[in-house]
Amino acid sequence: MPTTSRLFGTNGIRGVVGHTIDSDFAYNIGSSVATLFQSAPVLIGRDGRTSSPMLTEGVVTGVLAHGNNVIDCGMITTPGLQFLVKHSLGKAGVMITASHNPPEYNGFKVVDTDGIEIARHDEVKVERWFARKSWRLGKTPGQRTYPPEAVEPYLSSLHTLVSSKKIPPRFTVVVDVGNGVAALTTPVLLRRIGCRVITINDNIDGTFPGRTSEPRPENLGPLAVAVKQERAAFGVAHDGDGDRAIFVDETGVVHSGDKSLTLVEDEVLKKKPGSKVVTPVNSSMSVAEVAKKRKGKLILTPVGSINVARTMVRESAVLGGEENGGIFYAPHQPVRDGAMATVLVLNCILDNGLSLSKLMARLPSFFMVKEKRACPDERKADVMKRLRQRLGSMVTNTMDGVRVDLENRGWFLVRASGTEPLIRIYVEGKTENHVKQLMDEFRPVFDKTIGA
Q: Could you confirm whether domain 367-450 is CATH 2.40.50.140?
C-alpha cells in the first residue's frame, strides 16, 4: 500500500479501512512503535468499531515480532488506556480508534510512557520508520498477556475525585454513550458513587446505529428528551472512544463544549486563583473572560489534544479544554477524558448546590456558529494560502489556520481539519446579530476560496 510523508493528523492517525488502512498498515504501525520504544512493553486498547479487532491483531503482531511484550487491554476508552500507561512504569501504548469519525474510519493513537500521546517529533520518527520499513526483528518474539478487568484502576482513581458532598437521593444522570466504549466507564462509575443512571445507546456497536459517533447538538435530541422525562440532574454524551463529553442541563438544553469548559474553569480557578489554563485558538471568548475574572493565566495552542496536553505539562497548568467537549484535568491526568469531565461537572453541581442550568446562566455568554466545507487533503495547503492572501492585514493569528479578530464584534477562524478532508470555520460574536453580520460579510470570501 503506498504511504504518504505525513501519517499523523491533529489527533493520531485516521483513515478509511480498506482504502488507506488495513492489517498490513497496522503491522507497520506496530513495528514502528516497537522501534520507537525499543524493548518497552506496549499496552494495546481498542474501541468498538467493527474493524478494531482486525487492526489490533496487526499492531500486536508487529510489536511482538520486534521483541516487545504486549499487554492486551481489550476494549477500553482512550483515557482509560492512557491512565494505565501512565501508571505502568516505562510502558507505552497504542489505542486503536477513530474517535468521533464515521464507522468506516479507524486509526491509531500512540501513547508515550507518561500517558500522553507522543510528541510531534516522535510522530516524525514513526512516520520515517513506517515509510522506510527500517526496523529489525527481535531475536525472540515478545509475549502477549491479558490483564483481568483492565479498566478497574482507572475507575478507582476517578472515584477519588468525586466531591465529598453527599449525592442526593434519586440523583439521576442520563448517559448517552453513543454505542461507544464509554459504556464501560461513565455509567459504571456514576452507579458506584450512588447516582441513579439511565443509559441510551449503551450497547457497544461499531456501526453506531443510535446516532453518529460525534456528540453534536443536532443529534442529542433523544438525550435532551430523556433528561426531562427522567427529571435528571443532567445528561452527558460521549464520542466513540470516550475522551469527549457534551452536557445537557436539567431543562433539556444542550450546552457547547466551550460552555462546560468555562464552567469547570470557573470552579477550578475559584479554588486555585492564578492557575494556568490551556486551550486551542478556536475556543470561545468565554474561556478568556473567566480566566481574566479569576486571575488565571490563559495559554493558547494550535488545535489538537496533543498540543493542549503537552503544553499543560510544560507550563504546569491545572486545566485544559477544547470547544469539542474535551476537558483535561492535570490532578488526575492531563489528557482529554470524558468520564473525568463528567465527574468535574457533577462536582460543580454538588459543591454549589445549584442546578446545571443555573450554574451555566452565571457564565459569560457569546454566540458561535461552526461550519465545515469539503476539501481534499491535497488542496488544503493551497486553500489556506489563498485565504491568507485575500484577508491580508486583517489576519491576527496564524498559529493554526487563519484567525481574524474584529474589535467589539467577535472573531472567526478558518483551519484545515487534521482528521478529515474538511475545512472548518468558526465564527463567534458578542451577540447573535454580530455572528450573522460576520457570516454575511465573510461568507463570500469563504465560498470563493474554499467552495460553497
A: no
Cα 440 from Cα 423, distance rounded (Å): 18
Give the integer Cα–Cα distance in Å for 435 and 426.
10
Spatial neighbors of 203 by CB under 8 A, at least 6 apart, are 179, 183
**Burial (Cβ within 10 Å: 0-12, 13-18, ≥19) of residue 276:** buried
* Annotated catalytic residue within 32, 88, 99, 305: 99
What are 329-353's pLDDT values in tens digits?
999 999 999 999 999 999 999 999 9
Examine the residue annotation and report whether 99 is marked as an active-site residue of this protein: yes
Confidence of residue 2 (pLDDT cuts 50, 70, 90): very low
Closest by CA to 241, choosing from 151, 359, 348, 310, is: 151
CA–CA dist 92, 81 (Å, integer) = 10
CATH number 3.40.120.10 given to 8-150? yes
Residues ≥6 apart with Cβ < 8 Å to 447: none
The domain limits of the chain are: 8-150, 154-361, 367-450
CATH of 154-361, one of 3.90.230.10, 3.40.120.10, 3.30.559.10, 3.40.50.720: 3.40.120.10
Mean pLDDT, rounded, of the chain: 95
SS3 94: strand
Give the HSE-up count for residue 14: Cα atoms under 13 Å, Cβ half-sphere. Answer: 21
Q: Please give the torsion angle defined by the CA atoms of residues 434, 435, 441 and 446, in that order, rounded to the nearest 10 degrees.
A: 160
> For every residue of 40-69, which 3-state class applies, written as one string?
CCEEEEECCCCCHHHHHHHHHHHHHHCCCC
pLDDT at 4: 47
pLDDT tens column, 403-420: 999 988 999 999 998 778
d(CA 243, CA 78): 6
Q: State yes or no: pLDDT of 176 exceeds 60.
A: yes
**Residue 357, exposed/middle/buried by CB under 10 A (0-12, 13-18, 19+)?**
middle
Nearest Cα to Cα of residue 104 among 49, 47, 181: 49
